[in-house]
Amino acid sequence: MGRALQAIAAAAWALACPLAAALDLTETEQHWLQAALPVLSYAREQGLPLDIAVRPQPTPGESPLGMAYVEGRCKLVLSMRGNPEAQATLDRIAPELRGPVVEAIAAHELAHCWRHLRQTWGTLPAGQQEVSAFGRLSAEQAALLRDMWRTRREEGYADLVGLAWTLQHHADCYTEVHAWNRSLRARQAVETGPHDTRVWVELATDRSKFVAAATIFEQVEGLWEAGLRPPF
User: Fold this and answer.
1) Could you tell me which residues are beta bridge partners of residue 69?
2) pLDDT (mean) for 178-184
3) Which residues, 6 or more positions from 20, have their beta carbon under 8 angstroms from its beta carbon?
4) What pLDDT score was predicted for residue 230?
5) Average of pLDDT values for 185-197?
């Protein structure tokens, strides 16, 4: 996103109070950041180079939270101004689940940061190879399909990280947050499209499949690999 992000705000991690006012955030932006604060604090604890980026121009239809990677730093991008979906997303979440669900969304985005920082975004685990059976496709079509499947894999990984966060920090409502994630991914315009993460979400129904690990990112690796079945 680079230059398109005209208002980059370095996060001082005290987003709940003085920084929010200093950055002149909207009420909706403050609600999202307040809810995401535990995840942002975790990013600091892990030493991740993460900034908050606020898009000042209208962004109708954009995902309220996104992740960009610019010159070795991750940017948690808020696309909420002139974007009714930002508040609508909050309104669709049951009040008692709003905090846990927003934390899961933020952890999902943090997973993309983790993968970019390790220069593994879009790659497969050691020993696995890209699908190569594209005989009836043009070179351009094959490239588009590979890109779509790479994005799908990363979205699946990130969904699992969001659920791993929930299991660690909100175990009492894991079933409800998992159901929200399942509902989010239930309708797919294209099978195995870029956001078709249903195979990973279903694998995560059994919370015992999450293994103990030093970080939530490593905790999901085995479960993520279990969902990597052609076509991926």
Assistant:
1) 74
2) 97
3) 29, 30, 33, 34
4) 61
5) 89
Q: Amino acid letter at 75? A: K
The pair of three-digit structure tokens given for residue 33, joined into one six-digit string: 């950041």
pLDDT value at residue 11: 39
Whether pLDDT at 6 is above 70 = no
Q: Which of 184, 175, 185 is nearest to 207 (CA)?
A: 175
Residue with the two structure tokens 């390790």: 118
Length, in residues, of the chain: 232
Q: Which residue has the higher pLDDT, 19 or 188?
A: 188
